[in-house]
Amino acid sequence: MASPNGSRILVTGALGQIGTELVTALRDRHGEEAVLASDIREVAGHPAISGGPFIVADVLDWAAMENLIVDEDIGTIYHLAALLSATGEKNPGLCQEVNIGGMVNVLELARIYRLRLFAPSSIAVFGPDCPPLAPQQTPLNPTTMYGITKVAGELMADYYHAVHGVDVRGIRYPGLISWKAPPGGGTTDYAVEIFHDAIETGTYSCFVSAETRLPMMYMEDAIRATLELMDAPADSLGPARSGYNLAGCSFSAGELATAISERLEDFVCNFEPDERQEYADSWPDEVDDSAARQDWAWEARFGLEDLVDEMLANLTSMREVEV
Ligand code: NAD
Ligand code: AKB
Q1: Looking at the domain assignment, is residue 291 inside a domain?
Q2: Residue nearest ligand 1's atom 17 by CA
Q3: What is the pLDDT of residues 169-208, one digit of tens each?
Q4: What ligand has the least distance to the C-alpha of 184?
Q5: Are both 312 and 163 inside the same structural domain?
Q6: What does the alpha-carbon distance between residue 190 and residue 251 come to, in Å, rounded to a whole number?
Q7: CATH number, domain at 33?
Q8: Å from CA of 176 to ligand 2 middle
Q9: Are residues 205 and 224 in the same domain?
Q10: Which atom of ligand 1 is nearest to the CA of 153?
Q11: Which of 140, 174, 152, 154 is nearest to 240 (CA)?
């Protein structure tokens, strides 16, 4: 069934937090028809569905995925379908199945059909033994099932690149903060939920402690990083190609709450840690992204203050339009 690689782009998990914005960015660049969005579910009115071609597809269904690659003339996959840390810890079996099984399928398809592949990793690859400033290369001993699947994904990507020459690239995204789509069941979701609740109710009950500090990034930076990494010449990429550390900004939950209070003076945030505290505690405070800076000139644009301004302004105008 093998045929030469195609010219179109497939995005899996396109209705999620990243896919919602990545599909639009890719369609702006390459044209609507060039980008086929896919997900296991449908959401009425979602921009990835209304803004261009969309197909329901389960990344675990090999035959369906193979047909899609061939019939739809696919040459590049942005593979975003996954279960995140909190959802994954509630259902570790499904997390393994989707994150590892999905990755195996897209890597095999990339090998057979000579596809380019973007497959994201996460700061969840690090475990409690990692220094607070996570180096690019350090022992990876995650304690969440999600983190384990992400380490497995990076290792498999390295293997397919080294042994089969597959052009697969990845980023260890930090916690991503966005206003266009809700986060999909991760530990860093508090850093998005806090803005919605601050605007809608003036209070937020945060599920990690005020002292919890994690690497975070505004979605605009994350989308730009993704496109820049995929644009980088193959020979500029080094051994981090399957999981580049990427720093945006790092802040504690308390600092985030304070930055919001400085703009919404009646805002009150309470800290009531739940089981997600343990996952957050197993991750580093910040990451060293010198490999990404050196290999493909990565540079973040949004710090905490910019990010808070952007989130509040965009969510407020969105709410005014809806009301
Ligand atoms: P998300 O949970 O918002 O979206 C994932 C999408 O995958 C969902 O729309 C879901 O319906 C879909 N999906 C689940 N199972 C599927 C299956 N079997 N077949 C097809 N689709 C399926 O996730 P996201 O935040 O957009 O993350 C995308 C990728 O980026 C994931 O690999 C995630 O690990 C990684 N990442 C995200 C963040 C973040 O903060 N958002 C941080 C680090 C890494
Ligand atoms: C999560 O919290 O699970 C994700 C991630 C950092 O990978 N946002």
Answers
A1: no
A2: 58
A3: 999 999 999 999 999 999 999 999 999 999 999 999 999 9
A4: 1
A5: no
A6: 13
A7: 3.40.50.720
A8: 8
A9: no
A10: 32
A11: 154
State mean pLDDT over 138-152. 98
2 domain-assigned: no
Confidence of residue 322 (pLDDT cuts 50, 70, 90): confident
pLDDT tens digits, residue range 62-105? 999 999 999 999 999 999 999 999 999 999 999 999 999 999 99
Range of the domain at 189: 179-216+249-285+302-322
Atom of ligand 1 nearest to the CA of 102: 18
pLDDT given at position 1: 53
Q: Evaluate: CB of 122 within 6 angstroms of ligand 2.
A: yes
Could you tell me if 124 and 62 lie in one domain? yes
Mutation test residue for ligand 2: of 187, 217, 283, 285, the one with most atoms within 8 Å of CB: 187
297 found inside a domain: no
Residue 31, sorted as left (phi over 0), alpha (psi -120 to 50) or beta, turns out to be left
Rg (CA), the chain: 19
**DSSP 8-state assignment for residue 210:** T
State residue 140 phi and psi, 5-degree precision: -105, 105
Residue of 78, 113, 146, 204 marked catalytic = 146
- Give residue 261 CA to ligand 2 midpoint distance, Å: 25
Q: Which atom of ligand 2 is found nearest the CA of 123?
A: 6
Residues 193 and 269 in one domain: yes
- Is 218 a catalytic site residue? no
- CA dist., res. 18 & res. 52, Å (int): 17
What is the pLDDT at residue 5? 75
